[in-house]
Design goal:
Distance between the termini: 86 Å
Oligomer: single chain
CATH class of the largest domain: Alpha Beta
Helix content: 40-55%
Radius of gyration: 25 Å
Mean pLDDT: 88
Largest sheet: 10 strands, mixed
Number of strands: 12
């Protein structure tokens, strides 16, 4: 059955419920229900293939036994359903003791509990039931039950639902929460070319866009049962926010990753000096959050010269500390990282060039993330093989016939075709006396004080940004200029001090 309109139908029902306020809550509401339905389908699969598998979910709380309407007039609805969800289902999944028919139950887990069973607790730590009308809740559940996740076709058709949820999430998201277009994640994965057996990590994984692109790329490499095990143990993710985390877990289960190593945590809260070799990865794919500001306690997890008030800078540090020897990385970074020459950014870039091989920078055109932000971004490709000797910079121009990307005209994988063609046969390109692609030696880059704002867009018409984006851009530029002024003043004061002493 076609499910493309499912999200809209569910949202329309929820709009009549007084307890659900806005798109963010509607998305959160339907997401925990999708998870329970998907998880129940996976448990049925695990029970079938493994006779030793014992579910930690009591029979009365399994989706199949309370949510499915068997048309017997015994299905829960109204206040009965609402009371069950609020007083039995949620308390149990959050780890509280409940009582059903005189028997007490508690969702007990430990480090010995298989991860695929622990995640059912983890994803409900911050989940809530917002709905107050039990009849409407029953209607929503019935709509969700339209999809049969045990069927291969409908499991993969969930991709349509998933993309709809993502678009809604983007519209309802806070500033700084931008989800990477699938075309961009697919391109980055293609260039990195992961192989089965390699570990793939994203330390701010959101809803799992990079991880699913990597899994899609690896899917054809699965041939033997050993390959399936490798596939299942490929990905690793960390996500700070509860809703994207829940979506990511659900997404991984639907991609047949039965034990997704996705953790609900903040990657910046561990001291980078404490990472061991077994906490490093072959491949890192990321679009780190940017524009945020971290507390001093978080900044103290980094060496003094690498401490920054910009979240994206701190994630660059995490990547460098967690990339295996000979590992590869592709990371999206805003323009501010390229041109920034404050002490922290310069130190981070100096470390990147001196300890890693930053071989390619792809400068993406504006509006790639439209309509959610107009901030211009770049993709850095580097590996942990040797210090950088030379860096290629390639400017990706807007496709012919496009003035801007938009919701109705998003960036597509085919738009990266010129980049791929150039990647495989590199050479310098000059357009109207300005470089579109050029190779820079590390000596050149050092002489620029690590300002790698190169091969820019000389003839691009000035774009009028939305007020919030404009404010953010000017603040970023001001912060960089202020840092430069402070640095120069410090140098002058030092010289004056030395002269006075003389």
């Amino acid at each position: 059955m076609a499910v493309s309109n499912l999200v809209k139908r569910v949202q329309d029902i929820m709009r009549n419920d007084a307890g659900v306020d806005g798109d963010a809550q509607r998305i959160s509401q339907m997401t925990w229900m999708f998870f329970l339905k998907v998880y129940d389908a996976k448990e049925e699969e695990w029970e079938f293939y493994d006779e030793k598998y014992v579910s930690l979910i009591p029979e009365q709380l399994k989706w199949r036994n309370w949510a499915v309407d068997d048309k017997s007039n015994k299905v829960m609805t109204g206040d009965t359903l609402l009371s069950f969800v609020n007083n039995k289902l949620f308390p149990y999944l959050k780890g509280n003791e409940i009582e059903i028919d005189g028997v007490k139950y508690r969702f007990e887990i430990s480090q010995d509990t298989p991860f695929k069973q622990r995640i059912a607790r983890y994803v409900f730590e911050d989940a809530q039931n917002y709905m107050k009308d039990g009849v409407l809740l029953r209607q929503v559940i019935n709509e969700i039950n339209v999809v049969d996740f045990s069927e291969y076709k409908e499991r993969h058709e969930f991709g349509t639902i998933y993309e709809t949820i993502l678009k809604s999430l983007q519209s309802a998201g806070n500033a700084g929460e931008f989800y990477t277009p699938r075309a961009v994640t697919d391109f980055m994965v293609q260039m990195i070319a992961p192989k089965l057996g390699e570990s793939v990590a994203d330390f701010a994984c959101g809803t799992g866009g990079f991880l699913t692109s990597a899994l899609k790329y690896l899917e054809p490499q699965k041939i033997s049962p050993e390959d399936v095990d490798k596939y299942n143990n490929t990905i690793y993710g960390i996500e700070k926010k509860p809703l994207p985390y829940l979506l990511c877990i659900t997404n991984m289960l639907l991609h047949d990753v039965d034990e997704p190593k996705i953790y609900h945590a903040n990657s910046l809260e561990k001291n980078v000096r404490d990472y061991t070799d077994d906490e490093k990865f072959d491949i890192v794919l990321m679009n780190p959050p940017y524009g945020g500001s971290e507390k001093d306690a978080v900044k103290n997890n980094f060496p003094a010269d690498l401490r920054s008030s910009e979240t994206a800078d701190l994630f660059m540090n995490v990547i460098m500390y967690r990339l295996k020897k000979n590992g590869r990385c592709a990371v999206i970074i805003p323009d501010g990282f390229l041109f920034g020459t404050d002490n922290a950014k310069s130190a981070i870039k100096a470390k990147l060039f001196s300890e890693f091989n930053l071989h390619t920078i792809v400068r993406m055109p504006h509006s790639v993330f439209a309509p959610y932000t107009s901030i211009t971004t770049n993709i850095l490709f580097f590996d942990n093989t040797h210090p950088t000797t030379e860096t290629w910079v390639y400017r990706m121009d807007m496709p012919e016939g496009y003035k801007n990307f938009s919701k109705t005209k998003p960036i597509l994988l085919e738009h990266f075709a010129p980049v791929v063609e150039w990647w495989n046969n590199r050479g310098e390109i000059i357009v109207d006396d300005f470089p579109k692609a050029k190779k820079y030696s590390v000596e050149d880059i050092k002489s620029f004080n690590y300002n790698i704002d190169l091969c820019g867009y000389p003839h691009e018409e000035e774009e009028i940004l939305p007020p919030q984006d404009l404010i953010k851009e000017y603040r970023e530029k001001r912060a960089s200029l202020d840092a430069n002024i402070d640095r120069v003043l410090t140098e002058i004061m030092t010289l004056l001090g030395e002269n006075n002493e003389g």
